[in-house]
């Protein structure tokens, strides 16, 4: 379980500016290791560093100094942190052509309801954030949680082949989680 990100963890925009270039390189490398992709989607397994960076970036870009706004950002972004026996994933629709994206988004409506982790005959269905899409239009970013119970956590920790998959008509896609990332996730979820 990750500790919440607090006000003391946030850097003032002036200070973040001095480390931003180095920090951005570090976080990009980390995100590349923590990202799994299918043909249409990418899935970023969030952790404290990825979320803290998002907060610092938002405060820097928007030049936020208002304490109420910082508190609101902390509240919103802390929701991305995984809790005990949980993995947190940001799911992105990766259709770069704008015309194709506009054409496909209505077909993707509800895709967040069809995401699973599968391993050794077990599966964990993703919990999703309500209100990010409608029955006719999909958001290009979804925030998902995989909640483990005692039984499927034990199976997950012993699994060697774990996949993340979508099960929507015309979008049945699957990607194997690389071994190095899987080992990190097992450490983080237990």
Describe this structure in words.
A hairpin with a 2-residue loop joins strand 8 and strand 9 (171-176). It contains six helices and nine strands. It is globular, with a radius of gyration of 17 Å. It is of the alpha+beta class and 190 residues long. 40% of the residues lie in helices and 25% in strands. The model has no long low-confidence stretch (mean pLDDT 93). It has two domains: 7-37 and 46-78, no CATH class; 86-189, no CATH class. It has helices at residues 13-34, 48-62, 67-78, 98-104, 150-158, 179-189; strands at 35-37, 41-45, 86-93, 115-119, 122-125, 127-128, 141-147, 162-168, 171-176.
Provide key terms for this protein.
four-stranded antiparallel β-sheet; five-stranded antiparallel β-sheet; 25% strand; 190 residues; 9 strands; alpha+beta; 6 helices
In total, the number of domains comes to 2
Largest sheet: 5 strands, antiparallel
The gyration radius over C-alpha positions equals 17 Å
Percentage of helical residues? Answer: 40-55%
Mean pLDDT over the residues: 93
H/E element sequence: HEEHHEHEEEEHEEH
Fraction of residues in β-strands: 15-25%
**Count of discrete alpha- or pi-helical segments spanning 4 or more residues:** 6
Structural class: alpha+beta
Distance between the termini: 8 Å
- The residue ranges in which pLDDT falls below 50 over 5 or more consecutive positions are none
- Order of strands across the widest beta sheet? 1-2-3-7-6
What is the number of E strands? 9
Principal-axes geometry comes out as globular
């Amino acid at each position: 379980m990750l500790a919440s990100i607090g006000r003391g963890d946030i850097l003032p925009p002036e200070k973040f500016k001095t480390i931003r270039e180095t920090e951005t390189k570090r976080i990009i490398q980390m995100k590349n290791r923590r990202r799994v992709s299918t043909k249409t989607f990418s899935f970023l397994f969030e952790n404290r560093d990825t979320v803290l960076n998002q907060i610092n970036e938002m405060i820097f870009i928007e030049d936020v100094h208002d304490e109420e706004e910082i508190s609101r950002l902390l509240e919103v972004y802390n929701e991305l942190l995984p809790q005990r026996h949980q993995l947190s994933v940001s799911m992105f629709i990766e259709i770069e052509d704008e015309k194709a994206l506009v054409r496909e988004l209505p077909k993707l409506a509800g895709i967040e309801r069809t995401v699973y982790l599968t391993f050794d005959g077990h599966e964990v269905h993703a919990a999703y954030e309500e209100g990010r899409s409608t029955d006719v239009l999909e958001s290009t970013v979804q925030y998902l949680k995989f909640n483990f119970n005692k039984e499927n956590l034990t199976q997950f920790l012993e699994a060697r082949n774990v996949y993340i998959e979508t099960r929507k008509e015309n979008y049945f896609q699957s990607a194997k989680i690389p071994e190095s990332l899987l080992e990190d996730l097992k450490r983080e979820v237990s």
